[in-house]
Design goal:
This protein is α+β, with helices and mostly antiparallel strands and 122 residues long. The chain contains 3 helices and 5 strands; from the N terminus they run E-H-E-E-H-E-E-H. Helix 1 packs antiparallel against helix 2 and helix 2 crosses helix 3. The protein is globular.
């Protein structure tokens, strides 16, 4: 499976806080067996020493069986959001995405189905 993009959104817009939140989520996602986490990079600005730049608040998640780990990923993202420092996490696979906000209990079960559909190979 190709890399799946996780985008953390926080209300403050503070880049340092967003970076800390993304790293916190990355640490928790690393607990899922078979999943690897990487930084999202883009071409650096002209005139900078490095040819690449890291995208703040974004993670690349990959693994051969992401659809089978949808429950674990859902639980990790929901716990992360429940702590209240981030507003939402968007999970993007190509041109499809699922945005998970701090959901009510009734919305939690639907999140797994949405993630499984998103992670399913086309």
């Amino acid at each position: 499976m190709a890399d799946v993009l996780f985008i953390v959104s926080a209300g403050s817009g503070d880049e340092q806080q967003l970076d800390r939140l993304a790293e916190e989520l990355a640490g928790e996602l690393r607990e899922v067996s078979g999943v690897t986490i990487g930084a999202v990079t883009t071409t650096g600005s002209p005139g900078t020493k490095s040819g690449t730049a890291v995208e703040i608040g974004q993670l690349l998640v990959s693994g051969g069986a992401l659809s089978t780990t949808a429950w674990a990923i859902r639980d990790i993202v929901l716990r992360f959001l429940a702590r209240g420092r981030a507003e939402s996490v968007t999970v993007r696979n190509g041109d499809r995405d699922v945005t998970i906000v701090r959901p009510t209990d009734g919305q939690v079960d639907g999140v797994v189905d949405q993630l499984r559909s998103l992670f399913a190979d086309d």
